[in-house]
Amino acid sequence: MKILAITEQREGKWNKTSFETLAAAQQIAKDVGGTLAALVIGKSVAGLADELAGKSISEVLLVEHELLGAYTPDGYSLALKQAIAQTTPDLVVLPHTYEVRDFAPKLATSLAKGMIGDCIGYRHENGRLIFVRQMFQGKTAADVSFVGAGPWFATFQAGAFRADLVAAHPSGKAAVRKIDVELKPEQIRTKPGELFREAKQAVDLTQAPIIVAVGRGIKAPENIPLAEKLAKAIGGEIAASRPICDEGWLPMERQIGSSGQTVAPKLYLALGISGAIQHVVGMKGSRTIVAINKDQNAPIFEVADYGIVADIFEIIPALTEELEKSKAS
Fold it and tell me: How far apart are CA 329 and CA 322, in angstroms?
């Protein structure tokens, strides 16, 4: 089986979920005994291709074009369709990002092929791949497999695989092969506007290594600064469960969960969060989860690596003080 992992970059910087997807692709290739290539698309991204060549893959495909400098669904789907035609993969895997959600269905449809989106895992059974995806806001999971000939398309949810487990190339670097594509300005029907995340108040929590999240246990908006001070002391980003954002105590872009962002930081500190499934599906891929809640039966403790049954208004100031002391010393 030939597997192609399509990575994501913006303005020459990696989206870290690209390496989570690459880890998934490496594991699949190992399980099925297949070959793995990785693709970088954009303008002036040869440096990223060279960096990717250090990973354990057979080759790096470099797709560059003047019209790919800024993302457009037309440009990406047209260019990738040509790249796929030239490389004939059986399976194409991508990170389940906002960008991929925009162009991947268009790309798969243009090839009259199926796509399984937002996968949290897979199995290799009886010679076929079975992908696992959540349904009904994480209340259940479905096993889905492809029928017919490839290329098949699958996207993996952020946090489903660990980026730090991407294997390095065993003997130096893989070869980089440039793929020539033809694009014309009239084929690009949309003009990119200002990036949403360039807004001053916006934040991409998927890129944060440490997240301090608050729930109903924070009680009132005037208590939010306590958590923000802790987040600053620990070098993390502040986030929240849906009720906090619905009340307007924190902006909606700070919401974690099925209707917010899906994150997988190295450390997720949950303060006064009960652990409703709608929240848990957005953070359970975190490397280490620390939950503090005065209710010892709170569901959040079921997914936590470390649980503290205590009043957050006693723990937050004490923890912040110790962190600030360690910085000062």
Answer: 11
